[in-house]
């Protein structure tokens, strides 16, 4: 059976004479569709036609305007890094949202414009598709049901329906729980319950309760002394405490700069270095990847995840990419045996920034260094 058994198919010469409109109608008829109404929605040039055109144009204009604003913001927005204590930090913090809103708005307005154009300006049509009368033939119905049942039987679907039901309920419950737990979790455990000693402020570099300072060790547990690094070198070190090599906030990069290489020290962190040796957290302040690529000549530390770069000559401040805070610096000194130890824990939070960090104390906590 063919869908165009009742339609007379024109010859080649006749086809060549047909207009686009006639060809479109013929194509529809060959598919069993009859165009009952087809044509302009409004009389061209009429007030209704112009009104529809203005509505569509509004969305396209809005899209264009937002696109231009995105470009302007991208080029001229004062996006230079400002720390959390600067009065201009809000300008810096708004850079990404402004780009997102303008670009996202541009795409949205363009989409609405296209839909509006299809609904208001494209030709209006009413099509009727011929269907056979009544339900499907008995033979079609019975064979289709038999195929479905047979597939179910062969797979054991019917017999195991109880198990399937149970597992589906379990899967649905697990999915709901998984989606809800990030929201509910914050109400179950308060990460700030210990105030300044809260988990997010303290790392394994914190001195022991008796004041013993934590030694730096290599991954194999060997203590690190100044002689272990050549000028210009960088080594990853860990705190010599149980589990120190695995703690997510413990990995540190120890740098030995070349003699005479000047480093700008951040306020409140004078004396954190030991001679030409500087130690910075290895945990990226964007979303916590280990920053591990170091270029001696430029002093750039690169995070491979989203390409943030930090300048070791400028207190490990971010100079490129999405990270917004410098890598926290670990204060260094030597112990009695000449090995490096952390003079204290970090004085700021390690890893990804959280909104309470620095300027805005978290609920129930006091930021480090503010008490
Ligand atoms: S985690 Fe380092 S740039 Fe994103």
From TrEMBL:
Gene3D superfamilies (UniProt xref): Rieske [2Fe-2S] iron-sulphur domain
GO-annotated molecular function: 2 iron, 2 sulfur cluster binding; metal ion binding; monooxygenase activity; oxidoreductase activity, acting on paired donors, with incorporation or reduction of molecular oxygen
Primary subcellular site in the record, as a coarse category: membrane
SUPFAM superfamilies: ISP domain
Parts of the chain that traverse the membrane: 56-78, 90-115, 168-188
PROSITE patterns in UniProt: RIESKE
Stretch forming the signal peptide: none
Assigned protein family: Belongs to the Rieske iron-sulfur protein family.
Protein name: Cytochrome bc1 complex Rieske iron-sulfur subunit
Species name: Nakamurella leprariae
């Amino acid at each position: 059976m063919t869908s165009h058994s009742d339609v007379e198919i024109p010859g080649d010469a006749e086809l060549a004479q047909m207009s686009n409109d006639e060809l479109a109608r013929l194509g529809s008829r060959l598919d069993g569709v009859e165009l009952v109404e087809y044509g302009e929605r409004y009389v061209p040039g009429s007030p209704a036609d112009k009104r529809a055109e203005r509505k569509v144009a509004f969305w396209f204009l809005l899209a264009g305007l937002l696109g231009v604003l995105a470009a302007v913001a991208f080029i001229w927005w004062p996006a230079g890094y400002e720390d959390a204590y600067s009065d201009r930090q809000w300008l810096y913090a708004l850079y990404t949202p402004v780009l997102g809103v303008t670009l996202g708005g541009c795409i949205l307005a363009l989409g609405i414009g296209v839909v509006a154009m299809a609904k208001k300006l494209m030709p209006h049509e009413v099509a009727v598709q011929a269907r056979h009368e009544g339900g499907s033939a008995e033979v079609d119905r019975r064979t289709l049901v038999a195929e479905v049942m047979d597939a179910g039987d062969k797979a054991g679907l019917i017999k195991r329906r109880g198990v399937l039901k149970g597992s589906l309920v379990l899967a649905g419950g697990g999915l709901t729980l998984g989606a809800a737990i990030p929201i509910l979790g914050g109400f179950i455990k308060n990460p700030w319950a210990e105030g300044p000693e809260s988990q997010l402020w303290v790392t394994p570099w914190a001195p022991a309760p008796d004041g013993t300072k934590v030694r730096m060790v290599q991954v194999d547990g060997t203590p690190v002394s100044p002689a272990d690094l050549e000028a210009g070198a960088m080594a990853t070190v860990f705190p010599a405490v149980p589990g120190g090599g695995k703690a997510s906030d413990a990995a540190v990069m120890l740098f030995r700069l070349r003699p005479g290489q000047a480093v700008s020290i951040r306020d409140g962190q004078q004396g954190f270095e030991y001679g030409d040796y500087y130690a910075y957290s290895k945990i990226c302040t964007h979303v916590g990847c280990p920053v591990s690529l170091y270029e001696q000549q430029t002093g750039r530390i690169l995070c491979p995840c989203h390409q943030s770069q930090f300048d070791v000559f400028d207190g490990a401040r971010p100079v490129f990419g999405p990270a917004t805070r410098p890598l926290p610096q670990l204060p260094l000194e030597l112990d009695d045996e000449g090995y490096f130890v952390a003079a204290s824990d970090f004085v700021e939070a390690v890893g990804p920034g959280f909104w309470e960090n620095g300027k805005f104390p978290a609920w129930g906590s006091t930021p480090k260094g503010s008490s």
